[in-house]
Amino acid sequence: MDQILAGLQSWWYGFLSLFDAIPEDTIAITVYVGGTIVALCCWYSVAKRLPSPLGALTWIILFACLATPTVSEGENAGLAPALIGMIFGILTKEQNLIWSNLSAILFVAAVCFLVMFFWSRYQNQRKKLHQS
Predict the structure, then answer these.
(1) Residue 23 phi, psi (nearest 5)
(2) Are 97 and 72 a contacting pair, CB within 8 Å?
(3) Least CB-packed of 36, 38, 64, 82 within 10 Å?
(4) How far apart are CA 72 and CA 80, in angstroms?
(5) CA pair distance 24, 10, nearest whole angstrom
(6) How far apart are the C-alpha atoms of 106 and 71, rounded to whole Å?
(7) What is the pLDDT of residues 28-68, one digit of tens each?
(8) HEC per residue, the chain
(9) pTM, rounded to two decimals
(10) Cβ distance 81 to 31 under 8 Å?
(11) How far apart are CA 102 and CA 117, in angstroms?
(12) How far is CA 77 from CA 28, 32, 71, 95, in A?
């Protein structure tokens, strides 16, 4: 049993040593983007079961909260979503940080809502064209 654990431990250390060659920023960006994509795909499977406008609205709000980069300053601040920057502003009671991150989230949500509006208009026009 000890030999199996020793072999597994040496394999695990060898596997983790692969990450030593990859820069930290690359790993952080990959985890941030990958985690956002996984969360949005999981929420999509829930949102498609919700009533038509509600599912799309909640997906857009989640997208805006997860995908909007923060406007905070710091070493790794560009990798955090604006939601984390806004929560940090609330905890530190910095009004500028709260409003700047909230406005960035609302801007991304507004752009997504605008795209959703034009997409639904396009879909309606396409349906009308096929029905005629």
Answers:
(1) -60, 150
(2) yes
(3) 38
(4) 9
(5) 23
(6) 13
(7) 888 888 999 999 999 999 999 999 889 889 999 999 999 88
(8) CHHHHHHHHHHHHHHHHHHHHCCHHHHHHHHHHHHHHHHHHHHHHHHCCCCHHHHHHHHHHHHHHHHCECCCCCCCHHHCEHHHHHHHHHHHCCHHHHHHHHHHHHHHHHHHHHHHHHHHHHHHHHHHHHHC
(9) 0.74
(10) no
(11) 22
(12) 11, 12, 7, 17
Q: Which of 95, 63, 96, 98 is nearest to 84 (CA)?
A: 98
Q: Which amino acid is at 105?
A: I
Amino acid at 33: V
CA 61 and chain centroid, separation: 10
At 50, list the tokens: 């919700």
